[in-house]
Amino acid sequence: MTFDAVTSPSTTASRWERSADVLWRRTAEGVVVLPNDGSAVVSLEGLNAAVWEACARPMSVDGLADQLAGMLPEESSAGHRVAAEAVRFLVAMGAVRESLHP
Amino acid sequence: MTDPRALTLPLAAHGLAGSMFDMPDGPFAPDEWFELVRNCRTNGLIGMLAAAVQRGDMRLTPPQAEELAVLENETAGIALLVEQRAARLAALLGAADVGHRLLGGPARGRLGYRRPGIRTFDNALMLVEPKGMEVAPPPRGVVMTTTLIPPEGRPITLRDLADPPTLLALAEQPVPTVSVEEHLVLACLDVAGSWARDLADPRGILDLVAQRDVAELALFPAIDPARVQQTAESWGVVDLVARAVVEVWHLFELADRTRLSVWAYRMTDLPVGGRTAASRSNPAIHPERRPAAAPASATGRLGRMVHKLAPGRHGG
């Protein structure tokens, strides 16, 4: 699966979790992550950091939208879309992956 | 105007249980801020500065806060790169069946600190079997050596360390390191090394991070004081360890008494709260007496320690 499929209707049941092979450190503002096979350090703040924190256990986009509702647009579909965009970004960075656990 | 150097010690003590230093409110005048940031970078305290601000114990202007965020991210990123390189080196050594232990900031921070993110570093130390020196050149930021030479006592090699090792998970890769008790003894040796440097160079930089390491590790809930003592005895550094613990307890004004601190005060024949000769002459306690230190990186601090190491290949 590629991260492009995050918002695809067929993957609404997908769950997302932190990539195992990522080094990370908490900072005052968020989290800094470095995929073990990468060379680019990425600073996560705000919603991206919150999504990464939430993905300590496998989470669906719906679950993330519920849990992080206070940081998302009030309108449901817009909130879902923004949460999915955050997941897509984190997957692209190598910080989050699709969970192998159902 | 607040003397920024007087802030360094409270920052190094910030968040330690039982330590009661007053943190100036801020925000700071431009010159004060410049000096504060410079001293924090020099002493490896950027993470602790950011934590103090985050907790609301120090106020900054918006530009200062923005600058600090950039600095903290940069410092944290360097620490991650060092960990990545150390993990890769550990994998190479493991594949070659070479015994090794990751020492220094990465292991101390992740094993001993309640908030690992505040412990920043820009290098790591890999202690290896002699044959390991031929396996791979150390990557930048990782120093590789076969022997540690403490200020007193005898040289320490891999054979002196507990086996099996403690395993530190870096990106899910198990990296061998030493026990928390051995880390504490090694941190005490770093503190003792800084006394010698202070005597040799009164304008030098006090190794506040090593002292913070001692405090964090000594206050680690699961630490076994008996194992600390046994390790210190077997390495012939009991006096140094006891003096370092007393020094740190006094420097950070730690109110909590632990089995380890009581043991240390007994060993040094001092009443609890008393001071060693080293701490009496320690300029960190009287920062106003200390001239402004020249900027130096954490690598520089480790570099001084490494000068005392047996010959070995160092990271570039």
Reconstruct the topology from this structure.
The complex is a heterodimer of chains A (102) and B (316).
Chain A: E1 15-18, E2 22-26, E3 30-35, E4 42-45, H1 46-54, E5 59-60, H2 61-67, H3 76-93, E6 96-98
Antiparallel strand pairs in A: 1-5, 1-6, 2-3, 3-4
Helix pairs in contact in A: 1-3, 2-3
Chain B: H1 4-13, H2 30-43, H3 46-54, H4 62-95, E1 100-103, H5 105-112, E2 124-128, E3 142-145, E4 166-170, E5 173-177, H6 180-200, H7 208-218, H8 225-235, H9 238-251, H10 259-267, H11 277-280, H12 298-306
Parallel strand pairs in B: 2-3
Antiparallel strand pairs in B: 1-2, 4-5
Helix pairs in contact in B: 1-2, 3-4, 6-7, 6-8, 6-9, 7-9, 9-10
Give an overview of the whole structure.
The complex is a heterodimer of chains A (102) and B (316). Chain A contains three helices and six strands. In chain A, 33% of the residues lie in helices and 24% in strands. Chain A has helices spanning 46-54, 61-67, 76-93; strands spanning 15-18, 22-26, 30-35, 42-45, 59-60, 96-98. Chain A is of the alpha+beta class. Chain A has a three-stranded antiparallel sheet. In chain A, strands 2-3-4 form a three-stranded antiparallel sheet. The mean pLDDT of chain A is 87. Chain A is globular, with a radius of gyration of 13 Å. By secondary structure, chain B is mostly helical. Chain B is 49% helix and 7% strand. In chain B, helix 6 packs across helix 8 and helix 7 (208-218) packs across helix 9 (238-251). The model of chain B is unreliable at 279-316 (pLDDT under 50). The chains are: A alpha+beta (102), B mainly alpha (316). The A-B interface holds A 20-29, 32-34, 36, 39, 41, 43 and B 47, 50-51, 53-54, 68-69, 72-73, 76-77, 79-81, 83-84, 87, 115-117, 170-173.
